[in-house]
Amino acid sequence: MHLRRVHFFFGIMVLHVHLCSEFGLSSAFSGGSFLERNDSPSFSDLLSSPESYASALNMTINEVVETKRIHKDASDQLFRKLKFSNLPGKTKHIMQCKHRYRHGHHPFVCDQCWSYAPVCICDRMPPKHSLPNNLELVLWLHHGEWGLTSNTGCILAQTLTPCTMLMKGLPHHDGEMEALLNDTDVLSVVLWPSNSGTRDFAPGTITIDQMKARLAKQGQHQRVVLIALDSTWRNARRMVSRLPESVFRLDLPERVVFPEGCNDVSIISPLRTRGPGVSNRQVCTAEAVVRALVALGLSEKEGERVLNVAEAKVDLIRRYRGKPLR
Q1: Strand, coil or helix: what is 105?
Q2: Which of 127, 216, 269, 317 is the most exposed, having the fewest neighbouring CB atoms within 10 Å of its CB?
């Protein structure tokens, strides 16, 4: 199992836990009052004691401790089942997906915006905007992305409609995806770059102009679903390889991803770990999807509203983690 370091601003304590011992999601929190009284560049000093952390969560210290215990017990139970059972690999994977769907990465994360509870941004969400041209959006997530605080795809589900989030490997979500892909009345297109460095997994790539023409021609006669993968590149390649050959790939040229006058640095860059081959121009899920939707008819104004929320989330997560601006 991979090791993940979970930094907990509970005293000066730093817990080292296995990935399978990750804490779970709580019900939706509201970080509004906390944010209103704190405009510090970093929140780490504001969460430096059990009392201040519990206050930021609108909980008592005992409630915080009990919530941690419940989620740790669930994680430990999963760890024992995965390590000491002789279950098939697929069964173990399903168990991991179910655990992630129910518990997420951390016990104190909003289950809607996937922000740390004290910096929840749900009250900043604009009203949901309808997608253009009879489009539907499906976010297909690797289980490792589900509940991740750095994830921006969840912002799309909170600001656009119709938009569905599905976790690959979760049985009932896999059933929904399979039904969608097998529906002959649905034109499914996956957002996938032609320069991804992989062999072609589909018989054809469709351009923005070609897709717009198809949308105009089909009108209301066929559902058009844009599938956006939300994962690391390595896992995304595996996911796209499992799509049927009938699914077209929509490639976005650079002029669409970074239109004239647009900042060519990704909004997710403040949370990225710098290393060889890491570029600030590698956009996050929200950016890629919004740029595709704008090219397909979503207004620039609505697209910017979505990205503004995603950018605000990234900044709050950065400050919560105590990461400096680069």
Answers
A1: coil
A2: 127
205 and 248 Cβ atoms separated by less than 8 Å:
yes
- Of all residues in the chain, what percent are helix, strand and coil, respectively (each to 5)? 45, 15, 40
Q: Say if CB 247 and CB 185 are below 8 A apart.
A: no
- Measured in degrees and rounded to the nearest 5, phi and psi for residue 140 equal -105, 105
Q: Which two tokens stand for residue 124?
A: 């900043």
User: How far is Cα 267 from Cα 42, in angstroms, rounded to an integer?
Assistant: 18
User: Angle at CA 112, nearest 5°, toward 108 and 114?
Assistant: 50
100 within 8 A of 10, measured Cβ to Cβ: no
* Residue 201 pLDDT: 46
Largest CA distance in the chain: 61
Q: Read off the pLDDT of residues 182-216 as tens digits, 9 standing for 90 and up.
A: 998 898 999 987 655 444 444 588 888 888 888 77
User: Taken in order 124, 128, 133, 139, is the CA torsion positive or negative?
Assistant: positive
What are the tokens at 137? 């959006």
Closest to 167 measured CA to CA, from 261, 255, 235 = 235
Residue 317 CA to residue 41 CA, distance in Å, equals 11
Comparing C-alpha atoms, which of 216, 235, 225 is closest to residue 297?
216
Q: Which residues of 150-170 are buried (b: 16+ CB within 10 A; e: fewer)?
A: bbbbbbbbbbbeebbbbbbbb
Q: Do residues 141 and 231 lie in contact, with contact meaning Cβ atoms separated by under 8 Å? A: yes
The sign of the CA dihedral 224, 227, 228, 230 is: positive
Confidence category of residue 219, pLDDT binned at 50, 70, 90:
low
Token output for 144: 């490792």
